[in-house]
Amino acid sequence: MLRLSLFLLLLYSCSDQPPTTPETRPVENPNAGNTAIYDVDADDPYEIGDGAFMEMRPGGDLAPFSRELEQGDAGHFYIKGRRGDRLGYLIAVEESKIGSIHLTSTDVVTRDGLRVGNTFAELVERIGKPDAIEQEGGRACARKDRLAYCLDATDVLDSARVVEIVILP
Fold first, then answer.
1. How far apart are CA 162 and CA 126, in angstroms?
2. Domain map (residue ranges) of the chain
3. Which residues are bridge partners to 47 per DSSP?
4. Are strands 132-136 and 139-144 parallel, antiparallel or unpaired?
5. How many CB atoms lie within 10 A of CB 55?
6. Which 8-state DSSP code applies to residue 56?
7. Which of 9, 77, 129, 152 suits 84 as a labelling partner, its CA being 20 to 30 A distant?
8. Adjacent-strand bridge partners of 139
């Protein structure tokens, strides 16, 4: 019996497969819940770039994106991710054009490495001083270029967190 146990232990230790532990198991979405600032890489599933998201651009037609959108209320369309989750929403104008695009998922990242959940201090560290700060819907939004970073507070404090990134028309 001892010989059999030693043989099985030896056989297991010679396996060419690494052991599977919680730290080494493949993860379906490696950035889920991630709010860290880092350079954008290939693991980021959704990137905002050049005033567009998933090829949707303010002023563009809605029709080509019917598979990625789900009808909401009053001209709102939810943006669906690859796993069917909601990444945010857009507001339609003139019934067939894209207005502003509102992104609320931590899976979405800007080219500067910012995402929902980052603090205002982290935002300033990455993009510099905002062009303007406006009050919108009971919260503060910091604008820089064609993006607005809406915070979870009416006051702009370093600890205020980004709850929505808006691509402006």
1. 13
2. 46-167
3. 109
4. antiparallel
5. 9
6. B
7. 152
8. 136
Which parts of the chain fold into alpha helices (H)? 2-13, 120-127
Scan for tokens 């991630």, then name that residue: 34
Which amino acid, 28?
E
Domain 46-167, classified CATH 3.40.50, yes or no: no
Q: How far apart are CA 46 and CA 91, in angstroms?
A: 19
The strand order across the sheet containing 139-144 reads: 69-71, 76-80, 86-93, 97-103, 162-167, 147-151, 139-144, 132-136
> How, if at all, do strands 97-103 and 86-93 pair?
antiparallel
Residues 169, 99: contact at Cβ < 8 Å?
A: yes
Answer for the pair 139, 157: CB distance below 8 angstroms, yes or no. no
Q: What are phi and psi of 159, to 5 degrees?
A: -85, -10
Summarised one tens digit per residue, pLDDT across range 62-75 is 999 999 999 999 88
- Lowest-pLDDT range of 28-32, 41-45, 93-97, 116-120: 28-32
Residue type, 65: F
